[in-house]
Amino acid sequence: MIPQRRVLALSLAALALSSASWAAPSLAQSYPSRPVTLIIPYPPGSSTNDILGRMLAKKLSDELGQQVIPENRAGASGNLGSKLAAQSPPDGYTLLVGVAAPLAVGPAVYKNLGYDPVKDLTPIAMFATTPYLMVVNPSLPVHNVKELIALAKKEPGKLNFASSGVAGSPHLCGELFKSMAKVDMTHVPYKGGAEAMTDLLSGRVQMICTGLTALTEHVKNGRLRAVGLASLKRSEQLPDVPTISEQGLDGFEVNSWTALFAPAGTPAPIVQRLYQAVARIIKQPDVDAFLLKQGSEPALMDPARLGAYLKADTAKWGALVRSTGMTAE
């Protein structure tokens, strides 16, 4: 015979398990019960990430039945808003438009970041990527990656590439190319993308690798020549441009991804509810068209895959930053 105390203990344990099994669905069903803040770590209208973040806020409002309010918290190249989100209560009412630059590159180039993106944020869903494209001024006698590498090896240090600033994605793309192709090229940093583009179009600098959006029209009208796409698959916008990877630098990939994150410790039922909402949003035809118009592409990842991707991206760029000794300005 089982002692009475043992029976009571088993009954209480069963009750606790039963309560827990009901609590998770209940939490997901009741969330959200008030407006949600979506932090965008860049100024309004300043970048594709702000545009995508505002679109996501509107769509999430429709999906969740509560207003999702975009809040721009710019500063420190996206790190200020990202840090603020990471330090917010993990209740699902503060979310973050997470971006590659601050989350995957920031830990390597900033000595006092103030938070750990991997440990202090909960991944929810990746929803878009913006491919990078490597282009040259047409005066440079190269038409593909093979010819560019050959010229760079023939004239070490003479070819240059522009960027929108030290440790930004265009700079990292150039450094990754140098490393994988084993060539010596000179980095020319600018204070912004507009200045870099002006000098590239005039021929003062020879090459840049940056977001597809800024380059597509220049390539189509012949003012710039595409060398290769810095993604693992070709783009619908420039389907005839081969990837750098397929031209010999296997695995070469540089893009700007945009994803949804929450503070670490956010309950799993809330994370799952938000992921399912993003998954439905991605399938909407108008969203696909909107992303393509911005030079981006839909790219859905669930929480586990996004978490693994962030860790891998952080390791990749950390190794490159350490090998070059670069630091953020």
From TrEMBL:
InterPro entries in UniProt: BUG (IPR005064), Bug_dom1 (IPR042100)
Highest taxon of source: Bacteria
Keyword Signal: yes
Signal peptide interval: 1-23
Keywords per UniProt: Signal
Keyword match Signal: yes
PANTHER family: BLR1237 PROTEIN (PTHR42928:SF5), TRICARBOXYLATE-BINDING PROTEIN (PTHR42928)
The family this protein is said to belong to: Belongs to the UPF0065 (bug) family.
Full protein name: Tripartite tricarboxylate transporter substrate binding protein
